[in-house]
Amino acid sequence: MTTSQTDICPLNTLEFVSYLSDNGLVPDQFQGKVGVYAIFDAYQILQYIGYSRDIYLSLKQHLVRQPQSCHWLKVQTIDRPSRTVLEGIRDAWITENNSLPTGNGDAADGWNQPIDVKGMMTAEEQASFANAINESAQVKVLKQVARRVESSVLELLKTRGVQEDIRFNPKLKESGLLDLK
Predict the structure, then answer these.
(1) Which of 131, 19, 13, 8 is nearest to 78 (CA)?
(2) CATH 3.40.1440 domain extents, the chain
(3) Looking at residue 180, what DSSP letter applies?
């Protein structure tokens, strides 16, 4: 729902939208739209509230970072970008929820930051990284770990029926990070 700069639609009045269409795609009606969105799990329990200048791109990022938690959403778009207005809507929805969603609290990094594969290294990969003879060898290990984690993320998305074109930024893999390009 699009509103003027000052109207705040209560979260409970907005319709649930499926995170993925029948074709396995994120709803493209939010492409290039500015607004606030609430993400819900399969049981329609609120997981995260965010705002963005391009809701569609943000939804794709969240799907990659938290695929098990992204099943439903509610969205309020606004006409012109205004951080003050966006934060006001987000804060009103959090207040309406009577508790901070997990994705806005302790688990915020998992929703907002690139996937850091360093913490997902196997014992063998950790040993290879620690015993690398130089920085170039460490980068090689990080890229291998990033490719392994990327493969598992893509497989998980496939089991969810995701048909989106998911491409990770290859430069970030050298740092052990996965984020969409």
Answers:
(1) 8
(2) 2-112
(3) B
